[in-house]
Description:
The chain is built from three helices and eight strands. By secondary structure, it is of the alpha+beta class. Strands 2-1-6-7-8 form a five-stranded mixed sheet, with no helix packed on it. It has a three-stranded antiparallel sheet with strand order 3-4-5. The two termini are 31 Å apart.
Amino acid sequence: MLKVKATEQKIRIGKYEGTHRYVMQPEMYAQLAQDKVIKEAALRSGVSRGIMQACWDAAGEVIKAWATEGHSVALPGLGTMRFGLRAKSVATVNEVKAGLITSRRIIFTPNTELKDELADTTVQITCYDRNGKEVKRVTSTDDGTVEDPENENGGNENTGGGSNTGDNGGDNSGGGSGNGNDMD
Length: 184
């Protein structure tokens, strides 16, 4: 189950500036230590922890080397990763220089199976008002709808939990995570 929080925040920019709106973002769990991941992978694969550590280290070095050489590198069971960048544009070829690069990035593209798994994962949204008080919970079902357990009719209603209607462009000013899309 994925946990999401919707927090009522005052919007500071965009068409909703000056109003309070519920802004959703994933609740982040603690970062898993590499040792824990290796131990679990060793248990699931039936190989020793030492062998798994050696494989993990080697795969990491290969992925890093190939990605920094400009390759799109397959990550088994997950997708691909590649190098990307953001840079300023210039009018003439004589103005092109490395100093125009504003950031270097790693871009991850999930495979279809991972996208499907994420789409089928239940989402629980907990709503908090501007004072931090929990005011509502909604949980999705497998078909992607969000059911409101507080709705007396038991229908599918998406009130208070937010929606993905595309109007979140510049409205996520209260420390939220944005939409996660990377554009090159």
